[in-house]
Amino acid sequence: MNYDFKELAKLYKDTLLNNVVPFWEQNSIDWEAGGYFTCLDRSGQVYDTDKFIWLQNRQVWTFSMLYNRVEQRSEWLKIAGHGASFLAEHGRDPQGNWYFALDRSGQPLIQPYNIFSDCFAAMAFSQYALADGESWAKDVALQAYQNVLRRKDDPKGQYNKTYPDTRSLKSLAVPMILANLTLEMAWLLPSEELDRVLDLTVREVMNDFLDQERGLMFENVAPDGSHVDCFEGRSINPGHGIEAMWFIMDIANRRQDRATINQAVDVVLNILNFAWDDKYGGIYYFMDADGHPPQQLEWNQKLWWVHVEILVALTMGYRLTGREECWTWYQRVHEYTWTHFADLEHGEWFGYLDRQGEVLLDLKGGKWKGCFHVPRALLMCWREFEELGNRL
Predict the structure, then answer these.
(1) Which of 182, 82, 180 is nearest to 132 (CA)?
(2) pLDDT, position 171
(3) pLDDT score for 2
(4) If I label 355, which of 48, 255, 294, 305 is the partner at 20 to 30 A Cα–Cα?
(5) Which CATH code, of 3.30.565.10, 1.10.260.40, 3.40.640.10, 1.50.10.10, is assigned to 1-28+170-392?
(6) 91-119: b (≥16 Cβ within 10 Å) or e
(7) Hey, do 1-28+170-392 and 33-161 end up sharing a CATH topology, with the first three levels equal?
(8) pTM of the predicted structure, to 2 decimals
(9) Which residues contact 276 (CB under 8 A, 6 or more apart)?
(10) Alpha helices (runs of H) in the chain, residue ranges in sequence order
(11) CATH 1.50.10.20 fits 33-161, yes or no
């Protein structure tokens, strides 16, 4: 396979602007009740009208980001503002915590049982404030961000189902999202707070969750970073681990920290070697670090977000280091991802494949898949290959 950087940049750009973004523009906006529909079938028809807060916030972020980083199209700002207004009115409980789900009209359905809705609210309203200059949006972003910092050590709070003080575990999801979120919020934060939180998250991810001997990123560890021999303690989520590594690369590049960049690339390559399905191709969704049966019954499915985040990590890693292993792996993952997930007939991308690579669910959006991972990855890969092409 021979891939030309400029042709790849064009592929990602054209797919983003002429395929994926129009799919969401045309099908997902609820002009009548506010916010967005995310439950879209293959052709874009709405099959459920419930509104999941983290997907609503992610779509506000996506259209604000397109306005800020691609082109100041008035329709993109209008779509972002449409979602932001709906969320500002309906998205939080009286204490300022963000719900998980609303009905179509904005009535709460599911309590704010985790901080991930708050994380994406902070991202969304920060990006929207940058686009529209609204001071109220800055306030919403900062309030959500402070919520995340306040709750990060006990993200589920009263909604935690585990029995206290028996088997304490912390999750990679919290520091990895906080790392990316804090970079997103950089323009709103005092420099000392920005550096403090980035230092904390990089240290926690690379010291506590990274197994130095195996070079793998564990999904759950004890509070002191040690391993716990149980289902959760042995769990490897390859997509999470690799996504976390491009967040770390992004921070390290900002600081010109070459050692951490290369360490993150090493982890990406280790995870790929561990989690690639040699028989059918693609990356497993979950694995057990010791080779035992994983507890997740969907462990061998191939998911869209896992593969597009890998493409981002490999293109970024290759641009920053020039390491040939990144380019070799990129070509393999590119071939699998573009031939299995992209829907050439109806646009946008499938989300869920079985192990053999056949489409398991032909939805384009649902409770977990929305307007976020695919457009973000397409934009980032477009820009990475554009820069690589300009070096020639």
Answers:
(1) 82
(2) 96
(3) 67
(4) 48
(5) 1.50.10.10
(6) bbeeeebbbbbbebebebeeebbbbbbbb
(7) yes
(8) 0.97
(9) 282, 283, 332
(10) 5-15, 21-27, 53-69, 74-90, 116-132, 135-151, 173-184, 191-203, 231-234, 238-254, 258-275, 304-321, 324-340, 373-390
(11) yes
Q: Give the whole-angstrom CA distance, residue 131 versus residue 133.
A: 6
pLDDT at 273: 98
Q: What is the pLDDT of residues 349-382, one digit of tens each?
A: 999 999 999 999 999 999 999 999 999 999 999 9
Domain boundaries, the chain: 1-28+170-392, 33-161
- The per-residue pLDDT for 388 is 97
Q: Which residues of the chain carry a pLDDT beneath 50?
A: none
Helices (H) and strands (E) counted in the chain, each on its own, are 14, 14
End-to-end C-alpha distance for the chain, whole angstroms: 19
Res 40: pLDDT? 98
